Amino acid sequence: MAEHGLQVLVTFPDGVPLGAQGPALLDFEKALREHTGLDVRVVKALKGDDSRLRVMMTVEKRNTL
After folding, report:
1. Residue 43 carries which DSSP code?
2. pLDDT of the chain, 65 residues: tens digit per residue
3. H or E element, residue 29
C-alpha cells in the first residue's frame, strides 16, 4: 500500500485495552485532520519482541517452550 499524507505513530502502554486502542486512534486521526486540514494517518506502533533470549532462539526452539 502506498504511503499518503503525514504518518503519526502512537505507542500504547500495556494497560490500555486493545478494544479501546482502535477507536482512540480513529478519534485522534479525525481531530488532527480537523485541526490541521492535513492528510494525517494515525497508526499504532507495533512492539517487537524485547526478550533477548527469544530473539536468539530458532523458531523450532521457541515452539518447544
Report:
1. E
2. 446 789 999 999 999 999 999 999 999 999 999 999 999 999 999 876 656 666 676 767 766 76
3. helix 18-36
Q: Does residue 8 come out as left (phi exceeding 0), alpha (psi in the -120 to 50 range) or beta? A: beta
- Measured CA to CA, the distance from residue 35 to residue 62 in angstroms comes to 47
Q: Which three cell numbers stand for residue 65?
A: 517452550
CA dist 30 and 58 (Å) reads 42
**What is the model's pTM?**
0.66
**What is the distance between the alpha carbons of residues 41 and 45, in angstroms, rounded to a whole number?**
12
Closest C-alpha among 7, 44, 38 to residue 22: 44
